[in-house]
UniProtKB/TrEMBL annotation:
UniProt-listed NCBIfam families: PRK09542.1
Listed Gene3D superfamilies: Alpha-D-Glucose-1,6-Bisphosphate, subunit A, domain 3 (3.40.120.10), Alpha-D-phosphohexomutase, C-terminal domain (3.30.310.50)
MF GO annotations: intramolecular phosphotransferase activity; metal ion binding
Superkingdom of the organism of origin: Bacteria
Cofactor(s) the record lists: Mg(2+)
Segments forming domain Alpha-D-phosphohexomutase alpha/beta/alpha: 7-134, 157-256, 266-371
UniProt entry keywords in alphabetical sequence: Isomerase, Magnesium, Metal-binding, Phosphoprotein
Protein name: Phosphoglucosamine mutase
Family: Belongs to the phosphohexose mutase family.
Length: 454
């Protein structure tokens, strides 16, 4: 009987527990299916530091090579380093990682040549169908001439490309604490930061996919505590925290206080617009702060609002020829990086902005943090559609209130807004609220939660 991959093939990637939900034999079939769906003559494959990653990525490479595809194996890398390789080599790519998930998980992030995303509607459903069929009928017939397996290292070229996009040569000396969370930041940061006027205080740079110190998920405040304490103890200028595959970067200021990813989005947007002569489109999702479109317009750019999710951001980046895009989750996308996301490039922009003037980071980012936000609040509900309908009914016809349904339901006025979105995988509603001041934000947040949880 064909395998049921519904639990591991997600909307944007493959992810599940190893070996319970998938293993090297399935990884080999995924490699063959990826080769078949992309119809590529060559691909590039990389992996993170999880114990299962070398075996899974090697099996994937063998599966592709068996169908005659040449495979460039770049070994240990961050996800954005894999995107770099896909873009620079113009090859489809596969990155073996489960990002911030616990150690027993692993997964595959796939892209076409030039780091173009692969999701359910752009090849992933076809890949799943082939793998399911082949688990029933047997692996596809091998090519008469198998592909080659070649190992290469792209780390220095990746670092050089990022450094070419941000001028850090004349910044003032900075002390920065970097928490790699035992993830791939410990691999990339030393090379990317080499030779810059930075004193780097490393935290958890040892590559260890069992995550012995804390989860590699900086979105959870508990995982920022060590970084915050160390920044204060070292009197550092700032702190950076990377997730497990180092494609996301979170920032804390000199006091150890987290800087909102929306503020980072606004800051980087202003810099990218300046690089492009004060012209260009910037993409932001609908739960980033209102500060983002305001700053974009103030700096001559055109903001475009999208649904939440990297596939939507990347699609709009391509459609509008956008120069930059940012999300509340600390994913940052750059035209000069094949529209792919790279937290490392965003980090270099923050360092350049801070080092290019004399004020501390807290003062620098204040101009990009104009509102009070609730953060994302999850509520378990019996019927997502019913609760959203109840909110819509409560606010329909209220003076000055605008409703839109681009992604869930957004309720807004000139002074505040909130968005309620259903989870695709759990019986949850996700609430984000923002207002000009704390009392107003608290009021509208609590009003929305009362309806959601009624």
């Amino acid at each position: 009987m064909a395998a049921d991959l519904s639990q591991i093939v997600k909307a944007y990637d493959v992810r599940g527990v190893v070996p319970d939900q998938w293993d090297e034999s399935l990884a080999e079939l995924f490699g063959a299916a990826f080769a078949r769906v992309t119809d590529a003559e060559a691909i590039v494959v990389g992996h993170d530091m999880r114990p299962s990653s070398p075996g899974l990525s090697g099996a994937f490479a063998r599966g592709a090579a068996a169908l005659g595809v040449d495979v460039t194996q770049i070994g240990l890398c961050s996800t954005d380093q894999l995107y770099y390789a896909s873009g620079a080599l113009n090859l489809p790519g596969a990155m073996f990682t489960a990002s911030h998930n616990p150690a027993r998980y692993n997964g595959i992030k796939l892209c076409r040549a030039g780091a173009a995303p692969v999701g359910q509607d752009t090849g992933l459903a076809d890949i799943r169908a082939l793998v399911e069929r082949w688990t029933d009928t047997g692996a596809p017939e091998a090519a008469a001439v198998p592909g080659t397996l070649t190992r290469t290292d792209t780390l220095k070229d990746y670092a050089a490309h990022l450094r070419s996009l941000v001028d850090l040569t004349s910044i003032r000396p900075l002390k920065v604490v970097v928490d790699a969370g035992n993830g791939m930041g410990g691999h990339t940061v030393p090379t990317v930061f080499d030779g810059l006027p930075l004193t780097v205080v490393p935290l958890y740079f040892d590559l260890d996919g069992t995550f012995p110190n804390h989860e590699a998920n900086p979105l959870d405040p508990a995982n920022l505590v060590d970084l915050q304490q160390r920044v204060r103890a070292e009197s550092a200028d700032l702190g950076l925290a990377f997730d497990g595959d180092a494609d996301r970067c979170f920032v804390v200021d000199e006091h150890g206080d987290p800087v909102s990813p929306s503020a980072i989005t606004a800051l980087v947007a202003a810099r990218e617009l300046a690089r492009n002569g004060g012209r260009g489109t910037v993409i932001h999702n609908l739960i980033t702060s209102r500060t983002v479109p305001e700053v974009v317009e103030e700096n001559g750019g055109s903001p475009v609002r999208t649904r939440v999710g990297h596939s939507f951001i990347k699609a709009e980046m391509a459609r509008h020829g956008a120069i930059f895009g940012g999300e509340h989750s600390a994913h940052y996308y750059f035209k000069d990086f094949w529209n792919a996301d790279t937290g490392m490039l965003a980090a270099l922009h923050v360092l350049a902005a801070l080092g290019g003037q004399k004020t501390p980071l807290s003062s620098l980012v204040a101009a990009y943090d104009r509102y009070t936000g609730s953060g994302e609040i999850n509520s378990t509900v019996a019927d997502q559609a019913d609760r959203i309908a109840a909110i819509k009914a409560a606010y329909t016809g209220v003076p000055d209130v605008t409703l839109d349904e681009l992604d869930g339901l957004t309720v807004s006025t000139p002074d505040w807004w909130f968005n309620v979105r259903p989870s695709n995988t759990e019986p949850l509603l996700r609430l984000n609220a923002e207002a000009r001041d704390e009392p107003t934000m608290t009021k509208i947040r609590d009003e929305a939660l009362a309806i959601i949880r009624a």
